[in-house]
Amino acid sequence: MYMNDPGDIRGCIAESWEHSDDYLTWTFHIRGGVTFTNGSPCDAAAVEK
């Protein structure tokens, strides 16, 4: 994630995200088809590690 010049939050590998009411838990939904430079999939299991 990053913030662009106008101050909007943008996702790089995250296509969407949401937070709990208390903002303590965030859930990110990762775009499909994203890979690391070595070709392995950048999926939820890889990001969780």
Query: Quick one: biggest sheet?
Result: 2 strands, antiparallel
Number of helices: 1
- Portion of residues in beta strands equals 25-35%
**Relative helix content:** 10-25%
Low-pLDDT ranges: none
- Mean pLDDT level: 89
Radius of gyration, Cα only, in angstroms? Answer: 13 Å
Structural class by sheet pairing and helices: mainly beta
Order of helices and strands: EEEEH
Strand elements, count: 4
Termini separation: 18 Å
**Largest sheet, spatial ordering of strands:** 1-2
What's the shape? flat
Q: Work out the count of structural domains.
A: 1
Describe the protein in words.
- This protein is mainly beta.
- The protein has one domain.
- The protein has one helix at residues 44-48; strands at 2-3, 9-10, 14-19, 26-30.
- The strands form two sheets. It has a two-stranded antiparallel ribbon with strand order 1-2. Strands 3-4 form a two-stranded antiparallel ribbon.
- The radius of gyration is 13 Å and the shape is flat.
List the helices and strands and how they pair.
Layout: E1 2-3, E2 9-10, E3 14-19, E4 26-30, H1 44-48
Antiparallel strand pairs: 1-2, 3-4
